[in-house]
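HUMAN: Quick job: go over this next protein and say how the chain folds.
***
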Amino acid sequence: MNILIITNVFHPSNMIGAFRINAFARYFSRAGHDVTVVAEGVEDGMSYWEGCRIRYVRDPVIRDFTRKVYDYALGPKWSLHRFVKGLEVRLTLNASYFWCVRALKTARRLMSQRHYDVLLSTYSYDVAPHFCAFKLKKEYPGIFWIADFREELSFPVAAKWNIPQWYSWQLRRLKDMMKKVLDMSDLILSVSKPIVDDFKLLSSHGRVLEIRNGYDYPEVYETYFQERFTMMYLGHFYKDIHPDNLLCAYKDLIAEGYLPADCLIKIVGNHERIAIPDVLRSKVVELPKVTHDEAVRMSIEESDVLLMIYSRCAGRKGVYSGKLLDYLATNKPILAICDTADVVGDLMHDTCAGYAVDEDDIPAIKEAIKKCYDLWLNKRVLPRNWNKIKEFRRSNQVGILLDYLAENIPDRG
């Protein structure tokens, strides 16, 4: 099959959304399909990666906009480019509207030059890729359109975006457009059963496939124990997510003598200010952001416990943290502080990869840390369910989609 992918995050981006779309392109290509990607880039141009043709399209307002937003590196607050981008966002509720116009022009040119069987768009940073795909589907109705939404459908909040109430008509227009995207697509993808079930109700056709995120490195059966007991959190803390209860439990365990005085927590890549008690200043090390490959290496070689914190206060269900699935194949115990009744609790139970504890239950957090410390002290590992873990290989998840396509459009495969 000839496959066209539209995304505004892609290799070499270090954004978590890029790793999912990278995997689609990589494993489509390795399965023998011809893959072309239209993606946001620093400059316009063509490149090749993993056997795929990449057409990079520059954002005309701010170069490499999505990466700079993710890195909080947009430059001077009142620059002309930021002013124009602000107008673009508020008038269109689409942070990449002008990129979308240019990407659509590129995609139309590509489709005039060759026949494509499958079109895949992704909700990576904003709605722009889906809007491009919607236009193309109207012009080429025979193409099989896959709309990858990753997580649940969400819309801008007027107060958060500083959008005047009289722009509410734009929000209604955006919601109407997304409804059309759901209904016109041939297949919708998302990452967990609760969200898949929601999309089945939201779309008129109900064709939704669960393609989970996962890891893309060889399973690690050897274990590296640190000289000092070290827990590690990789990534930044989002809104309503903070390590306060973890640090409280950590402080108590040291004071009570359950943890050695020289133990460590390493926090890698967080740009938000967190409240670290004075007594823990020497025991909590904050490190700068690293590449994804380096984050994987650090989780394997420089930690004894891998931390995931996700608050129910975020008001979201069915969300797997990207870091959690990257942790699965490290052979390190995972301490997931979360809503234990949600998908993360089930994942920890099914894979035997770690412990899921409620975010408000400090005694339970303390007990889980003590179990992890005991593993380190006795140089033991958890008896992981590797067969269950291997289901989360990105190659296996993309394979589910490839099987679906082979079954549903066999005359093109």
Summary: The first strand starts at residue 2 and ends at 7. The CA atoms of residues 249 and 366 lie 5 Å apart.
